[in-house]
Write a structure and sequence with these properties.
By secondary structure, the protein is α/β, with parallel strands linked by helices. The chain contains 10 helices and 14 strands. It is 33% helix and 25% strand. Strands 1-4-3-2-5-6 form a 6-stranded parallel β-sheet, with helices on both faces. Strands 9-10-13-12-11-14 form a 6-stranded antiparallel beta barrel. A two-stranded antiparallel ribbon has the order 7-8. 35% of the residues are buried.
Length: 316
């Protein structure tokens, strides 16, 4: 069973010693997975636990609260993906002012040494930590020699001449380059969540939707998309999904609304995964609901066509 811990301080997590990976891990892209694979290899060879340390919220979200960066993956998705990657323990540390003020030296001594009993520490390129971002790979190596662990930086993964990064994936998603994002992630981009009750306007317009709230997170993409919806039955269901603020009905909070083709059933409370296949258009404000429905009709036809061709292995 994978252990989840949220606090910087606390009882020792790994009595037998651990290999520790540290990072934001937003998106769990191919670069992250390469880091985790190497850490798992060392842990298996040395009979150590694999411990992954990340943060919730991410440091960039904490310091940029007025305008946080888009998130690629929710905490629940990240935990599950890290567990599937073989982590024995996962730290989603509460990033608050106290943690932000923790010196790099104390981060090493309290977390890595005392709590995690680290024997090896692996980080990605350009990794910094501690108050004022004073900590880096050189400090990890120097203090590791004192505390009894080794530190190494894992080389980035290069694709088409560029280093794979969460920032590049966000740029791809925002530009509608879903296939390029999928290549960097190693899988299609997915947003998941529990279906909540909405105003049921879509039902009155002939397009009932499964609504997933983003819980205050800024989405990495907006617009209307051809999608596959997972989590119902044995296979995905084709659909058309909108992610935006619904300006025609004066909405404000971003909401993911997925309309499932040829489906009639109660989805409230279900945990669904919405896979984004192809961007159809940007979100628009229409003069009235009749104009909105006409466009929704066109979106549905286009989405069906895209997904039919996708099933046949053709490019969307």
């Amino acid at each position: 069973m994978t252990v989840l811990f949220r606090d910087f301080s606390g009882p020792r997590i790994s009595p037998r010693g651990s290999v520790v990976c540290i990072g934001a891990f937003d998106g769990l892209h191919l670069g992250h997975r390469h880091l985790l694979t190497e850490a798992r290899r060392i842990a298996d060879a040395c009979n150590l636990d694999l411990v992954v340390v990340s943060f919730e919220p991410l440091p960039r979200e904490f310091f940029g609260r007025a305008n946080p960066p888009p998130r690629l993956i929710r905490a629940r998705q990240k935990f599950r993906a890290l567990r599937e990657a073989g982590a024995d323990a996962i730290g989603l540390l509460r990033f608050n002012q106290g943690l932000a003020d923790t010196s790099a030296e104390d981060f090493i001594a309290e977390l890595l040494v005392r709590r995690l009993n680290a024997r090896d520490v692996l980080v990605g390129p350009d990794f910094f930590f501690g108050k004022g971002r004073r900590g880096n790979l050189d400090m990890l190596k120097d203090l590791g020699a004192i505390h009894g662990f080794e530190a190494q930086g894992v080389q980035p993964q290069i694709q088409q001449g560029e280093r794979i990064s969460s920032s590049l994936i966000r740029a791809d998603l925002q530009a509608g380059r879903l296939q390029e994002a999928a290549l960097k992630l190693g899988h299609p981009y997915v947003i998941e969540g529990r279906v909540v009750r909405g105003k049921q306007l879509g039902r009155t317009l002939g397009y009932p939707t499964a609504n997933i709230r983003l819980q205050g997170r800024k989405p990495a993409l907006m617009g209307i998309y051809a999608t596959w919806i997972h989590g119902i039955g044995n296979g995905p269901i084709a659909g058309v999904s909108s992610l935006g603020t619904r300006p025609t009905v004066n909405g404000r909070e971003p909401l993911l609304e997925a309309h499932l083709f040829d489906f009639d059933g109660d989805l409230y409370g279900k945990h669904l995964q919405v896979e984004f296949v192809h961007k159809l258009r940007d979100e628009e404000k229409f003069d009235d609901l009749a104009a909105l429905v006409q466009q929704m009709d066109r979106d549905a036809v286009q989405a069906r066509d895209v997904l039919a061709r996708w099933t046949l292995g053709e490019c969307a």
